[in-house]
Amino acid sequence: MSQISGSLQVFTFSGHSTASQFCGGVFISDTIPFGSSVSWSPDSRFIAVDIGGPLQIFSLDTDGDITQVSYGISTKNGPTSLSWSSNGTSVAVVNEFSNEIQLFQLIQPQIAEQVGNYVNLGFAPGSVAWSPDSRFVGVVNKTGPIQIFRFNGSTTPTLLTSGYGGYVTSIEWSPDGKFIAVVNGWDSTLEIFPFSESGLGVPYSILINEGQPLGPISATWSPDGKFIAVCCVLPDRLQIVSFDGANTPELVGGYVAAAYTPESVSWSKDGRFIGVACVGTGLARVYSFDGISTPTQIGNYATTGGYSRSIPWSHDGRFFGVASRTSDIFQIFSFNGYNTPIQIGRNVMTGIYPMSLSWSPDGEFIGVTSNYSSIFQVFLFNGSTTPIQVGTNVSTINYPTEVSWSPDGKFVAITSQGDQKLQILKLNYVSDKSDQAISNGVVFGNANLGSTYDTTVNILAGSNVNVDGLVNYDCVN
């Protein structure tokens, strides 16, 4: 059999331009026979290579590093072809000369590993969020202050600022990174803090839920940064607040009576729809919002597994997930903008008491924390069938409550009420994202979405941007 010298190389391909090498080649053997086979695992994290003798497995991480994870798995005589199983746990090898097929079951490695040490918060955290540039992590709790940590991507986060206490249950950065919105249940207010490298400024404040105690519980920004949706309990309502970045926030339209105990709210990525998950009824609702009037419900309720919590949208706004604590499952629903959401595939079993879901920025993966099991899991979602788990369960701090995927796709932040700690995990996967175009610090969309055009424009940290003659500077740099 003819042989050549060679290595393993990985290329990226946008679908409409010349492929480019993603990372440096990895030496495999002095001689590689013609007819050798290469195959990707379904989650794109592993590469199986058959070079006419031993089977080799390589991993590929977000930084483009190729690492050999198995060394010379013996095969039969004349291996000529290989293929992964659909769940990514086994590899089949066909042997030409011995007329045999072999099945190899792989021991799944952990999907994530801890960065640095745990951060002791001193309070039981209720919510965690990343800044848009993935350089800061914010944590709030019901009895202590807002805490903002700086994160450099490789070591333990360090405290930047701490202040403003109260019954705070939700935190989220504005899309431009200039403001942080939190809700305070004790005085029923939405507080919007200016944010910079030096800390938090004087907040803009507005009364929510007509001042009912323990009212607002969760808040989310619209993608354009002009509005904030707030869900409340006692009574159960959804309200919209407008904010121009300089003046006192204002209520928009009237309130919407939500189903019993709406605990989570999130905005679709196109800004047109708002999802609400209700703990008391186990229902999920979707509302449309035109920027002027009271939100209106689209279709009927989506029925979940009960005690519904966490309702994040996918990157393209076509799907949302819901965790159901009492059923130990999460579900994915599709939404076409006009009708009742429809579940995709079957219920997905998690650990005990799943508390929080978070999508990867490329929309391919869903991270889940399970409170009683103290684990973090990652599931692959192809857009049409039941998500499947990739990698093994990752042990976390005790009783994890919230998980948030960093905007750059490389990390997740996890908080724990049991340990009162913050944990950062680095993910071992390759993001399916290719910049559609880039010019002087401005990134236009994701080319890998194909016919689903991405109109998102990302301004990189430190860029000066002129809009209609006005200077809008990234103040967190």
Based on the model shown, name its key terms.
477 residues, mainly beta, 5-stranded antiparallel beta sheet, Methylamine Dehydrogenase, Chain H, 52% strand, single chain, disordered C terminus
* Counted beta strands: 47
Mean pLDDT: 81
Instruction: Give the amount of beta strand, in percent.
Output: over 45%
How helical, in percent, are the residues? under 10%
Biggest β-sheet description:
5 strands, antiparallel
Structural class: mainly beta
Number of continuous helical runs = 0
What would the principal axes of the Cα set say about the shape? globular
Total domains:
3
- Quote the CATH topology of the largest domain: Methylamine Dehydrogenase, Chain H
Query: At the first level of CATH, what is the class of the largest domain?
Result: Mainly Beta
Name the CATH architecture of the largest domain.
7 Propeller
- What is the terminal-to-terminal distance? 59 Å
Give the low-pLDDT segments. Answer: 468-477
**CATH homologous superfamily heading of the largest domain:** YVTN repeat-like/Quinoprotein amine dehydrogenase
Write down the Rg: 24 Å
